[in-house]
Amino acid sequence: MKLYGALLSPYVARVLLAVRFKGLDIPLVPAPGVGLKSPEYLAINPYGKMPALETDGTAIIESEVICEFLDERFPERKILPGDDLARARARIISRAADLYILPALLGLLGQMNPVSRDARLVAEKMAELKRGRDGLETFIDGPWCMGTGFTLADCAMVPACFFLEKFLPAFGGLDVFADHPRMGAVWRHAQNDPMVADLLKQMNGALDDFMRRRAANG
Ligand SMILES: N[C@@H](CCC(=O)N[C@@H](CS)C(=O)NCC(=O)O)C(=O)O
């Protein structure tokens, strides 16, 4: 098995958390070819997005599908709870992050430069993000998203919180979690977990490198 992608993607980081929680040894490798839309990579993922998991001569795409596949293939340490209602709630949190948090957040990343910023677009994305976070707040129940155990919901939430904390201050939100204390509490709890902390350290390193390269290239 190998996982195509790069650390600085919330979708890739989600799968990496599942991989690490399960104690699996699945290498993270860059997409083949030049860029995600190269013919080589499009043959693996026709949508040209990361991540993709290569296994058994086939490719599995979509981060949540990959996480669920790994949970079925390696059931020893589950990331989906045993109870059907709890499983539904874990999936709601993961899906809400996909539908109502990450698209707005990624939209804001294109507006980092205050000089060229489109104020109307930023206001729209911030409102979208607030709705997404307000909704998620009602499904979260600490210390992890679903209580005492690490689940699929945390795989989605940890990378989302990482990027929220890194990038929202640029748009004027000083205390990023002030209006969303449950999400903030999960984020604090997660950062104290050794497995999560180790991945976050690598993501921080990758982000520093990215910022340095960006500054060097003007
Ligand atoms: N729904 C997909 C989203 C994956 C995604 O959008 N990945 C981004 C990286 S953060 C990407 O590959 N973007 C490249 C592109 O859209 O061209 C998943 O959950 O895997």
What tags apply to this protein structure?
mainly alpha, Glutaredoxin, binds glutathione, Glutathione S-transferase Yfyf (Class Pi), Chain A, domain 2, 218 residues, 8 helices, 2 domains
Account of the protein in words:
With 218 residues, this protein is mostly helical. Helices cover 56% and strands 6% of the residues. It folds into 2 domains: 2-73, Glutaredoxin (3-Layer(aba) Sandwich); 84-216, Glutathione S-transferase Yfyf (Class Pi), Chain A, domain 2. It contains 8 helices and 4 strands, in the order E-H-E-H-E-E-H-H-H-H-H-H. The chain has a 4-stranded mixed beta sheet with strand order 2-1-3-4, with helices on one face. A hairpin with a 2-residue loop joins strand 3 and strand 4 (58-61). The radius of gyration is 17 Å and the shape is globular. The site of glutathione has 11 residues, from helix 3.
